[in-house]
Amino acid sequence: MTQTVPLAKLKRSEKNVRTTPPRNIEAMASSIRARGIMQNLLVTAARPKGTFEIIAGDRRYLGAMMLADAGEIDAATYGVPVKIVSGDDADLREVSLTENFQREPMTAAEECVAFQHFLKSDGDIDAVANRFGQTRRFIEGRLRLANLAAPIFEALSEGRITLEMAKAYGSTEDQAKQERVFQQYAHSSYVNADQIRRAIVNDTMKASDPIAVLVGADAYVAAGGKVECDLFSEDGDRWSDPELAQTLAAAIMEAEAKRVGEEQGLAWVRPIATTSLYGATADLHRVTLEPAPLGEDEAARSDAIVARCETLEELMADEEMEETAYAALEEEFERLREEYQTLHSRPPVLSDELRGKVGTFLTLGRDGKMMLETTYFSETPLQGSAGDGTSGSTRSARDTSSLPPEAVAPGGKPLSARLHDELAVQRRDILAASILADPGLALDYMLFAMSDQSRSYSRYGTTVTAGRPQDPQMPKEG
User: Could you tell me the end-to-end alpha-carbon distance of the chain, in angstroms, rounded to an integer?
Assistant: First the structure.
């Protein structure tokens, strides 16, 4: 029997087979606000007389109660369409199971077409979103899927690809690109959404890429570039023409390199859109410069820090010292260590005589900001050393006395920058393999590294840490 019952007379029932809390009640409330309750709730008579328990229709009930709690409807007078059923507990649970089991949700493709229809008639995405209790991003995502290339949307409608795969194709609005990737993977049974997304992303650039940040979206769009919003990922927008962005970035960096070179009187400044100099210095000669000397007061302070740190180490070696006293000494030690490192972290001094003979690189940081390197290079070997008035030297066959032993080949010939870096990587890898194969060595090295980092007030120490290694990008031969 079908009739209308006041909302206040309804209550939830344990006989309802759905035990998980209903989801997206806000969407149901929006639908009820716009259209009312369009489908009967299944209920059974309960106590006290005149009240009813809900066998099926919890989500509709909770949506209506949300409106009542918000004061939009009056629960005492709002009529809810119900169908009253009767029977014992087993019968009522069977009715609940049947009502829930036979319900078939809309497919994603059907949702896309439906939302597209409502948008055409309404013209307002926000209004459609509010009507169905969805976010604007959700509606935009379904509309993007509705505009997939025809073969892809057909595959989604027929269930030949999953919703996640369709979203991967929809990460770009370029239907030609969608179809190219679809043709590539259409006959593969092992493809997944991640593979599809990577294939599409390879032809684009993230809006957070350093090059994109340097150029700026306005300049990129003004030059004819297109920005795509990925509605199915939190990675942000993507630029569909990375070559254009790279061309614009190159122009910006070249202009800045020219300006800085002229301003500082350098022989040259080369822009590179990365933070790594490897490969760019293969044919150059590194110029070694002495750091700016400490002033008289700074040198005295440095000596005082060294002496105090040695005293602190002796005091902290006392095993009977109270914990609070030890902590105070340790805090002072760390403060002094940082002060010492700050004193000795001084940029190298480039003399006026060398300035017109050397150059450096303008690099691009991960934040999209340009940075001028403080390491200098010459295109030809420079004569002289730090002690002959030139305020610097180059690593050449004529001067190897200032090089570390591993940077000099037998016979006194200096190694190239590339070979030196390759050997450094090999040594690091050999050390890592040895540590992995020998637990005792691994423990010893861990203790050494911890002690070196926490106790040494020198600016020199181990460079091997637990961070991920950043190997230089070796240029291809040929």
Answer: 86
